Input
Amino acid sequence: MFKNRKAVSPVIATVILVAVAITISVAVAYWMGGISSQYTKFEKVEVSSAVCQADTGGWNITLKLKNTGTAQATLKNVFINDFEVIYDDSAIAVVPGQAVADFSSTTGLSMSSGANATVILYISNTYKSYSAGTTLNVKFHSAGGMDYLKLIELV
Output
């Protein structure tokens, strides 16, 4: 007596199965995205601008930095053409602006995620025989082992 009756048509059953599968996959994707963001924090510092201005005794180089990563970045060292900036050297001065600490301290220059900083390098014209037209490779080294480079031409 009940052999000729169907419970649900095959088309309706397929639609229901596809809808359930899509709903579950979207829920799992949101869940995995939330978990992965906790473990994938990274630092990324961008040198947004570099301006070199000639002075009577040398050059003032103003670098604007921004941490575009999701974790705090701590810049520990500055290198010019692969020579580390020595802070006792009167030929080079590093002046951080809008910064928490300066490079000569043990903590370095800390930048939280989304933070901006301005670093001013002063290079005398007698330092390492640099002259106008020389291209400098300025490199910031972070506590996380990353290097951030900017090429600057002395004017």
Remarks:
- The chain has two domains: 1-40, 45-153.
- Confidence is low (pLDDT under 50) at residues 96-101.
